[in-house]
Design a protein that fits this description.
Elements (H helix, E strand, L loop, with lengths): L2 E5 L2 E4 L4 E8 L7 E7 L6 E6 L6 E3 L7 E6 L4 E6 L8 E8 L7 E4 L3 E6 L1
Parallel strand pairs: 2-11
Antiparallel strand pairs: 1-3, 3-8, 4-5, 4-9, 5-6, 7-8, 9-10, 9-11
């Protein structure tokens, strides 16, 4: 069982930056791929970014490519999402998740979410 706790959300102006962190506890953090998802009010949850176990592979939603960067530090059991050039449409609750593969349906463990609000 892996427990995930997100932090780093908040209120930021358009064009600003935030870095989200996802601290994992439990065994074998480096056995899991990590993903960041978000859900805006009235919308379905969508994947934002994913990173492989050894961080050699990353993937991004088209809407965030070039603006967001996912990373992980396996020694610290922590994943990160650096968000630059934020837009009001990035406003959502952001969740990190741990999974068996970089497929949306294979994420097994979820954090509680952290709110990101981007003002115009």
């Amino acid at each position: 069982q892996v427990q995930l706790v997100e932090s780093g959300g908040g209120l930021v102006q358009a064009g600003g930056s935030l870095t989200l962190s996802c601290a994992a506890s439990g065994p074998s953090f480096n056995s899991y791929v990590m993903g960041w998802f978000r859900q805006a009010p009235g919308k379905e949850r969508e994947i934002v970014a994913a990173i492989s176990r050894g961080a050699s592979t990353t993937d991004y939603a088209d809407s965030v490519k070039g603006r967001f960067t996912i990373s992980r530090d396996n020694a610290k059991n922590t994943a990160y999402l650096r968000m630059n050039s934020l837009k009001p449409e990035d406003t959502a609750v952001y969740y990190c998740a741990a999974g068996l593969a970089m497929r949306v349906d294979l994420y097994k463990y979820w954090g509680q979410g952290t709110q990101v609000t981007v003002s115009s």
